[in-house]
Amino acid sequence: SRITLASRPILGACQRRAFSATVRQASKVTVLGGAGGIGQPLSLLMKLNPRVTELALYDIKGGPGVAADIGHINTKSVVTGYLPDADGLKQALTGAEIVLIPAGVPRKPGMTRDDLFNTNASIVRDLAKAVADAAPDANILVISNPVNSTVPICAEIFKSKGVYNPRRLFGVTTLDVVRASRFISQYKSTDPADENITVVGGHSGATIVPLLSQSGYGLEGKNLDEFVFRVQFGGDEVVKAKDGAGSATLSMAMAGARFAESLLKAAQGEKGVVEPTFVDSPLYKDQGIDFFASKVELGPNGVEKIHEVGKITPKEQELLDACLKDLKKNIDKGVEFVKSNP
Ligand code: NAD
Ligand code: LMR
């Protein structure tokens, strides 16, 4: 079930020089769930990224088809597609520098992300086992919901296999920052591309905490409440509008591709690359909370430095307190799941 779609033309000396100047190292990116609603546009964006030299798409159905399609795009990366047969998962993962995981079911109207736990927890657990065996040094970017629980699930699996590296496991919360930046621009008539609103906590409802004050904005009263609500429940807007056909896929693909690009930049030596992400974090460990999203500086080894939450308003503190309560439950649920279903 493996198909290789790149042709490797014989390069002239000039072209070879240009090639080695732009591609400073081989970077294989693997997408698990690559044929899904997020997986397809995310894979497309990774194919357009010149830092990627190899792109492997794995899915329980459709991986090779999506790979055949994307593989015709005239960028240099080699694209391969895999199914579960013929050791497809292992082949997709071997040699990966980045593993993006958008595999699993999305919400329908009326569901919370936690309602996805029963289905997605075992999907993510099994994929994490395969990653631990075939790509133990890769950066793992978990998109599958509920992120607050699926990231701890991965950590527990990696620990049980003796390969846990907290610097290389990331819950992707970039979409919350993308939304916050877009929404604030609508209040302030600014260019959303210039906005970078800090969002901390986790990735669901009350655990999503936008810290507007840190961008120097003072929304008040109803405007502030509306803004916070939209950031916390932006995912629900899309679920409702799609009316049973799933949740955010295209904006998520953009957010996932941005995060992967940041990791590749950092791996290739760029300094000062900072992204918000849900990681194994010292910030609230004294309260029994092992994972938390805040701004994280990325480097060649993954997490380089975890930023403190910093100065916040009393209102933001209230939001943070509510976040921590929910977050602890979500994290504990993931850890418990692996204990009882190893
Ligand atoms: P989708 O149903 O369109 O695609 C999921 C894909 O996963 C499908 O192609 C399916 O075949 C595949 N899959 C299922 N089990 C698999 C397995 N064991 N191995 C490999 N592939 C498998 O769903 P979607 O819209 O792409 O959403 C995927 C997940 O991402 C959902 O859990 C959703 O809630 C989550 N999500 C997270 C964020 C975030 O911000 N982190 C944003 C949007 C969606
Ligand atoms: C989102 O924030 O859009 C995703 O987590 C998907 C969802 O279920 O809302």
Roughly how many Å is the radius of gyration? Answer: 20 Å
Number of helices: 11
The proportion of residues in beta strands is 15-25%
| Mean residue pLDDT | 93
Give the strand order, joined by hyphens, for the main sheet: 1-4-3-2-5-6-7
Between the first and last Cα atoms, what is the distance in angstroms?
29 Å
Portion in helices: 40-55%
Shape call: globular
Identify the bound ligands: nicotinamide-adenine-dinucleotide, (2S)-2-hydroxybutanedioic acid
Question: What can be said about the biggest beta sheet?
Answer: 7 strands, mixed
Low-confidence stretches: 1-23
The helix/strand order is EHEHEHEHEHEHEHEEHHHEEEH
Number of strands: 12
- Class based on secondary structure composition and strand pairing: alpha/beta
Binding site for substrate: 107, 113, 145, 179
Keywords: NAD, Oxidoreductase, Tricarboxylic acid cycle
EC number: 1.1.1.37
GO molecular function: L-malate dehydrogenase (NAD+) activity
Overview of the structural elements:
There is one protein chain. With 342 residues, this protein is α/β, with parallel strands linked by helices. The chain contains 11 helices and 12 strands. A hairpin with a 2-residue loop joins β11 and β12 (302-306). It is globular, with a radius of gyration of 20 Å. The two termini are 29 Å apart. The model is unreliable at 1-23 (pLDDT under 50). The structure holds nicotinamide-adenine-dinucleotide (NAD) and (2S)-2-hydroxybutanedioic acid (LMR). The site of nicotinamide-adenine-dinucleotide has 33 residues, from α5. Belongs to the LDH/MDH superfamily. MDH type 1 family. Residues 173-338 form the Lactate/malate dehydrogenase C-terminal domain. This is Malate dehydrogenase.
